[in-house]
Specification:
Structural class: mainly alpha
Strand content: under 5%
Shape: rod-shaped
Number of helices: 4
Mean pLDDT: 78
Number of strands: 0
Largest sheet: none
Distance between the termini: 99 Å
Oligomer: single chain
Length: about 100
């Protein structure tokens, strides 16, 4: 009988007291982002750590499920055909449009 659970048991067992694992990681934040986060923390009177964590959560959710964009659609419009023009003979139509001098 084991007195202490293995790492796997600690993650899956419901009999253990809940533990909060905090990991510290060093990241580089651009100056403008850092300033924005600090200003927001001051404005909301919220700890800087909370603002950063919430922004990361929101950003990660957006990356996982990006907003679906509607496909671009164009609406056709009937422009009509000038009188005296016929689409059955393209060569004749081109000559009418360009003029006989174009050849």
């Amino acid at each position: 009988m084991r007195l202490w659970p293995t790492f796997y048991d600690a993650l899956t067992s419901f009999n253990l007291m809940p533990m909060m694992i905090i990991m510290r990681t060093t990241i580089t934040i651009d100056d403008d982002v850092l300033e924005h986060a600090r200003n927001l923390a001051a404005k909301l009177r919220t700890p800087f750590k909370t603002v950063i964590n919430e922004a990361l959560r929101s950003g990660l959710e957006h990356v996982e499920r990006p907003n679906k964009q509607k496909p671009y659609k164009t609406e056709p419009h009937a422009m009509g055909l000038k009188s005296g023009r016929n689409l059955d003979n393209i060569q004749e139509l081109l000559s009418q449009i360009d003029g006989e001098d174009a050849r």
